[in-house]
Protein 1
Amino acid sequence: MQLFDTIQSMGHEQVVLCSDPVTGLRAIVAIHDTSLGPALGGTRMWKYASDDDAITDALRLSRGMTYKAAVSGVNLGGGKAVIIGDSRTEKSESLFRAYGRFVESLRGRYITAEDVGTSVRDMEWIRMETKYVTGVGGNGGSGDPSPVTALGVYSGMKATAKFAWGSDALAGKRIVVQGAGNVASFLVRHLTKDGATVFVTDIYEEKARALATETGASYIKPEEVFTTACDIFSPNALGAILNDETIPNLSCQIVCGG
């Protein structure tokens, strides 16, 4: 990757590489655009195949946050961060506090929050080192954003269903949900309660099967996610999954995810 060429071509203002050998922290903070206000975006923890993959994800996600803030009419810019590591085995208070110190060093240019692989507890550890974090628990904290995110996806799905079919009813609709994390779990509960026929998958099979058992959804293998016949496809895992190779395999009329 030609890093500076890539940053310039995507319109980023700043990319910060964070390293703390004592805690094992390896993180990237990408600030895309602060024209409307400080950059807001979650911190993702993922075991990337390479450093280039991690940087690419941070750049892509932070640019998306700029557009989301602008479309929503809020006085915020776009930012995102990734921590390279396995969120199931490599978390520690010291690692997130070290990361919090890097966030603090940006003096409010970047405000962090939860994303894939991070939790309210992680945000509270970050909060020990900086005020520039949201999604913490307790009095005055916004807590886990997943239920609200899922409600937004669900509401958007109903709105697009009304546009496509003249009714926002989802009963009987075949819906494929990719992901079985926090957002996807809340979404699947909404959909099955409405009487939709839901198919769920995740790279962690045990999570997807547990969610399917709990809600009455059906489990499908990850490799079947694009080819399973459905009315609505809802991606709620990692991004960049719709491309020239996968789109032709979709049979749905609606794509609506978080």
Protein 2
Amino acid sequence: MTYRPGQILLFLLQSVTAGLALAFLLLYLLPALGLLSPGEDSELRYPVHPDPATEGRVSYNRAVLVSAPAVVNIYATKVTRTRPHPLFQDPLFRRFFGDQEADQRATNLGSGVIMSSDGILITNSHIVKEADEIGVTLADGRQILAEVIGIDGATDLAVLRIDLNELPAIPIGDSDRLQVGDIVLAIGNPYDLSQTVTQGIVSAVGRNRLGISTFENFIQTDADINPGNSGGALINTAGELIGINTAIYSPSGGSQGIGFAIPINVVTHVMQSLIEYGHVIRGWLGIEAQVVPPDMRNSQGTQQPGVLVAGVMQNSPAARANIIPGDIIIEINGVSVDSPYGAIQMIAERTPGTSVDILLLRGWQEFRVQAIVSERPEMEGAR
């Protein structure tokens, strides 16, 4: 039998049409027959369109919800009376122009953190010291005056109390577990913009010798900390307080990505002492410690760690232990001393009245002395 070209073309078109129909039928029936996995079925019949509200989203909203209600705004006001020009003190001028004396109010802006539900707050001492009035604005908008419980200028911390109960206390974390690279959030009141959250990482821990306070052991972070953030909270991703924001490194006064916070483990120790005693009890030897100059190390032929005793206060524990200027402290209670700050910190952590064993180098001779630690006096420069 001979087929015409038109018949052949018609046959081919019918075959292709039938094949396509069969293919679509199989694609429809295969899932029902269990020959495709659920994932394959959904991809074939229901293309996935990710929900932008949930898919690929990294949020710290839960951490903020837990901690932000405990962060407050602080307004510390100092009132100063201006003295008018002597001319206005003349009785004739006062008769016509009245008393020209006037009060000027200067307000220091900062942040604070509610540490307990009965009204204990923590903030920086540089915000509230010498203030005549301290106003607190809570996250829910309530406003109230605060009283100072205690101030510790050596760590730049202050404890306040407000007369409110059932307050949202912030969860407390453990700053000793912090590691470089951990995500942190800073919450505070920058530029009086009300509560603001910024995010960064832990850039370094144990920062000291910054000249911010006497006892320094800062967390460094690149979370934006601006004027008004001081005294606010540095939290981890669980919403736990791990530091109190204190200072920034900035020639211009704005955030440069280098901020410093006081670790919460230091904060809680200072807070408890201020509440119980009104001040922080620290050990004290009465020495001025400095880095050992290289020429002194070379002349004495030692490369051991240590700090130079540059001065000894009269009638101090160091003087009574026969420590003299020029001595090099190598060890305190068997622990090597490698910096003046380290030596001061080790002594400060001792309870007044306890004894410390000190290994000294005097000239070329090493010897040990026992010193009874006293309580550190409240005086500038005391070590």
Protein 3
Amino acid sequence: MAAQQVRVERDAAGLAVLTVDAPPLNLYTAELHDLLDEAVGDLEDRPARALLIRAEGKVVSGGVDVRLFAAQPSRARAKALFDQMLDLPDRIAALPFPTVFAAHGLCLTWAFEVAVACDIVLAAERASFGLVEKVIGLTPTMGGTQRLAARAGVGRAKEFVMTGDRYDAATLERWNVVNRVLPDDGFDDAALRFAATLAAGPTLAHAATKQVLAHYERGGVAEANEHITSIAADLFETEDLRDGVRSFLRDGPGKAVFTGR
């Protein structure tokens, strides 16, 4: 039963779909963390071509089970917990293939922090988001504040965290936090199609794009420029680039079939 709270399904094309299904609210618990940790570990050991993270139920997540915090007897134990929690979205962000988060409904605290660790955030029109840790006197610990600032700016991040308000999908799309807002009807299928398109694409080139942008995040345009030519040149050793060039010259654009090799 517990293992079904997190499941990873892979298709023949290389798309992995990680589903959180811990009713009724998909709350973050120590048990759920262990299951997510195991799932991400499997994706690290056996990389997919793309990953879609989604949830079952009426909400993506109602947040963290506060009893987890109540169980921490000291500052040292709390820090150890927070270090463990932060590691999860960091590892998702480091996966060497495209990652997509699909939010179909209310998406609070840890789930939002995982969402902004992904490359692309898709939201249904009815989705809403919040970092509401202020209600217990805490600040977000899983990287959400700083990743929100990277997408929307420091001022927006301060507002989002300090108010603890819920923000709708349209607002976060305007803030450049959500990449695309999609209709409620058919949202799951649309998110799956979007992720499948990425999985069918030149995933080694996508991984290279993630490397370049990681350098940009660390040191701006100058650092990215120091690495881009080497990263791009490495792609000339891949079958995908060689086949893509041949296909373009022979058949025109958009006809290449990529294999991730």
